[in-house]
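Subject: two folds for Thursday's group meeting

Dear M.,

Sorry for the delay on this. The cluster queue was jammed most of the week, so I only got both jobs back this morning. I'm pasting them in the order they finished. Each block is the input sequence followed by the predicted structure tokens. Could you check whether the formatting survives your parser before we put anything on slides? The first protein is the one we discussed after the seminar.
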Amino acid sequence: MGQIIWLASYPKSGNTWLRAFLANYRAGGSEPVDINRLPELSFSDSRVRYFDQVAGRPTAGLPFAEIHRLRPAVHQLFAQARDGTVLVKTHCTLSQIDDIPTITPELTAAALYVVRTPLDVAVSFAHHFGLPMASAVQAISFPQLKSAPQDDTVAQPFSDWSSHVLSWLDAPGLKLHWLRYEDLHRAPARVFKGVIAFLGWPFEAERLRNAIRQSDFRTLAAQEAKAGFVEASRKAERFFRRGQIGSWRSELTADQVAFLTDRHRGVMTRLGYLGPDGKPAVREPERANG
């Protein structure tokens, strides 16, 4: 039986980019991996079919509490799927609900966590879920936030942005490597090289360069434009919308920026999303990765 390496993030923070890079690096091919094969190459802990499988019956329409009780069995299913390590995507906050962990510790080897400034998360969240910007700003600041179940996904507990980040970064005993979405844009080779080292995969410079190119935003967006993307939201025109940093500057009001920075000031400061003057500015985080 294998052990799970979680590919974790708050929604709309770069998880798909990370998975696409890992899929392309592992494949080492001359052509990009089909984005619609990503769910085959790394499991997702939100997919209904896995909950149906462990329950032995359809689980659509079950209350959240009943779905949540199935999580440890779903995680067991992932671990039993392969020997060695198993990559599993999650947007769940790392916590316990009714004494049941959202992430099963005894099946966990490690985690990769992608973080993105909540200012850009709010913008991407609004477009992805079809929400007014003001609602998205409030949503990612709501401690009890959960996703709504869909035909192919179960509800997931997100919590607010700060609580989600801290639940992973400060999880006791968890072997963790975290990376910033913004650094992926600015120095993809350096950041992804660190990911490969953390996973213990053999490093090849040419393979790294190819995987970065094969998983860049333009390549992923072109694939979606041609064949669609199975993980796209029904409420959004496209999944790969802009892939930029700093789009909040043209889409959030001054009051919305003030609300988010006030609500998430501690974590934003720690991760380098606020400058010494308390204003948004990406800089080196206060605490090193580890």
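Second protein, same layout:
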Amino acid sequence: MAEIHEMMSAGTRALIEDNFLQLMEQEGFHKVSVRQLALRTHINRGTFYLHFTDKYDLLEQLQREILTGLEQVMVVKIVREEMSEHYLKGIPYPPLVHILEYLQQHGERLRLFLGAKGDAVFPGQFKEVVKRSFYRKLEMNGVFAEHPAVPPEYLAAHSASIFLGITEEWLHSGMPYTPEELAVIYNEVLFMQSTLIAKA
């Protein structure tokens, strides 16, 4: 009996979340009200408050779930020699594909949260998670030790900015490339920079 109740509760929560995201898409977060959401979901407001404190709590939980997962998949071991080999062959680098697959899985929500109809705080949180993840990844892969003349936070900011620029463009344009295709594009941009510097 308890399992049935839990399933019903989880189903109600998912219904609230789905309708909330639809309303956000139509009207923007700041115009959505709990009353409006309850009517659309065919529940009373008391049922809503069993799951969330208010609409800000609902949005925060949805965003936190994505950001927590992103930080977990972002920190992977990257071997530059392997990346270079994949770049020369024009094939996607699997650890990068894994990250992009996660972004694709949550792409519609990310596009909404990062856009004008979302909350103004989220883009900064998203960028901070990416920057923090790159810092940990570069530290783990020994990149800071290889370039002692550059402060670690600057290396992390530089790496994060390239990733953010490419992935945000991809998300906002409706993800026209597969994660595999975008991984090849990303690798091309990384190694293109090295080529341009060498020619300067």
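Two things I noticed about the second structure. Residues 196-200 have pLDDT under 50 and may be disordered. The two ends are 71 Å apart (CA to CA).

Cheers,
T.
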